[in-house]
């Protein structure tokens, strides 16, 4: 029996013996166990005992997909980045998490930290669009026309 299966049976036994366990919970627990089989299970020491910690491998990817869709719809965006005639609604927290440049801008006493509209003079509108798409998707479609945009990744926006 694999370590994952052993941990699952131990968890099942401990849940079944708990006072909140009922017969109707059995089917719910079985479906949960099936869904958790796609997750990484890592032990963690809590209160002196080893407990399984479940980590879904796709969680961060799916969260960023949702944030990108919300950005496209203008939902919960708290800043608008402007380059030329292009205006891109964004989430400050996403920008700050993915770029040291934006982290410094939004967490220090700069006027931009409280601004809802930030005009970026130094960047081409198409480059800004590509960079923001990259921040939210971690993908960039490199072409001969946009290959120079990558220089902004490390230098201007401090994105690795």
Automatic annotation (TrEMBL):
UniProt superkingdom: Eukaryota
Record InterPro entries: BTB/POZ_dom, SKP1/BTB/POZ_sf
Pfam families registered for this protein in UniProt: BTB
Protein name: BTB domain-containing protein
Organism from which the protein derives: Elysia crispata
Keywords from the named record: Kelch repeat, Repeat
Transmembrane segments: none
PROSITE patterns from the UniProt entry: BTB
């Amino acid at each position: 029996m694999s370590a994952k299966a052993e941990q699952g049976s131990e968890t099942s036994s401990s849940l079944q013996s708990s006072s909140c366990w009922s017969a109707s919970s059995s089917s719910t627990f079985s479906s949960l166990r099936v869904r958790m089989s796609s997750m990484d299970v890592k032990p963690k020491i809590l209160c002196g005992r080893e407990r399984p910690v479940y980590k879904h491998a796709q969680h961060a990817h799916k969260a960023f997909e949702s944030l990108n869709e919300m950005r496209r719809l203008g939902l919960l965006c708290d800043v608008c980045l402007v380059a030329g005639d292009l205006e891109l609604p964004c989430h400050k927290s996403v920008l700050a998490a993915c770029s040291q440049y934006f982290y410094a801008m939004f967490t220090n006493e700069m006027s931009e930290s409280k601004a809802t509209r930030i005009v970026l003079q130094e960047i081409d509108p198409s480059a800004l669009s590509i960079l923001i798409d990259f921040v939210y998707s971690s993908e960039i479609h490199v072409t001969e026309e946009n290959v120079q945009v990558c220089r902004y990744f490390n230098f201007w926006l401090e994105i690795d």
